[in-house]
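User: For my dataset I need records formatted as: sequence, then structure tokens, nothing else. Please produce one.
Assistant:
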Amino acid sequence: MKTSFLQWLSPYALVLALRHLLYDRGFFRSYDFEVPVICVGNITVGGTGKTPMTEYLAGRLLESGKTPMVLSRGYGRRTRGFRYVELADTAFDSGDEPLQIKRHFPGTVVAVCENRAKGIRRLIEDYPQDPWIILDDAFQHRQVRAGKNILMADHNRPFTKDTLLPFGRLRDLPAAARRADCIVYTRCPESMADCEKTGERHAGMPVFYTFMSYGSFLPLHDPAVMPRTGAPVLLVTGIANARPLKEHLQKHYLVACHIEFPDHHRFTGKDIARMRELLDKNPSWQLITTAKDAVRLKGSGIPGWIIPVRICFFSRESEDAFFHLVTGLQ
């Protein structure tokens, strides 16, 4: 009751309700496309695993012999309009997340465009041969009627128990979740049984549970020897929710210092100098950062390590059921 009451006190509530009504009644137009369009998004601020899910879909589609193409807004870039992401780009050219995806899948077409409908038309025009378009962070972009909508949610912060900004973390009405074809909970407990016991219930909506798996370190610029178990590390993050990563590292290393910046933070010369100073004063420390932050640290020359992350399902059966639901493929 309290959550519902606060929701309608939000200055965004009536605006969002009217916007959805106008789309639902056809006053605002939504566009369909004859090619597969899969939307990955959420209705909360903060990290819910949208980019790992986008990378997962791109990888599975490639394994299936398809041609995935990723279209993103390109948050934080200084360019405007439609643009193909190139390996030589910086985060200022295309945004950190699209560039991260491009570097993970160099042969995959990745593009940015504020207007998703225009972006899709351009991709179809340039690549008419069986494109499979993945929209990264586009659940609220109702101008496009995607073939499948995947709603990402943090198992530890369920949107069903949250409310709209500024009182909570929701950036859309909870009822918007009904437009999804499935809900994927990320950062779940260690077992599927625990998820099913504590998970939220969504009548008639397929729900999938996942967890984040951290991989082996990758070099950032010219790091020293890879950190040994228990070694002190300097953690540098500029992501929405660094807590799970920090907790993971603390199981294996001594996180001697954590410099935490806001999401999509543009590292300045002063920021880099601070990192160098800490590393110089503490020669045993090694810097660890995320793949997303590494995109913005490229060219800084700061030595360190990148810790990759990927989304994982609890069973092959669950993973295959999800992939079939959103693609129709086996």
